[in-house]
What does this fold into?
Amino acid sequence: MGGRIASQIAADPSVKTRVAGLVFLGYPLHPPGRPERRRDQHLAAITAPILFVQGSRDPFGNKDEMRPVVDACQQGRLHVVEGGVHSLRLPNKMDLTTLKVYDSVQDVIGSWIKTL
It folds into this structure.
């Protein structure tokens, strides 16, 4: 729940802390198997840039479910890990392929941070 709670704090107008940006690694858009229980109502209120890194097969919100959410954000960007699940790893694999995915995600985040 870390990313979701952080996003709620960033969206709260009474919070005086300035947020330079948010990175979500597998945003929990909804509970698995419950797409009707969305957790995104507050995201459009966030004025800071947001990078969503999402597995294309994430049961908490796949790339097709996330795309309109990201588009509704004031400064949202989506990076999709093709074949990735909620942890961004590839199903049934914890090998060099997954380690390459993690390295790639780190590079994406680093590049995004440099743009802020």
Notes: Residues 96-114 form the longest helix (19 residues). The longest strand covers residues 50-55.
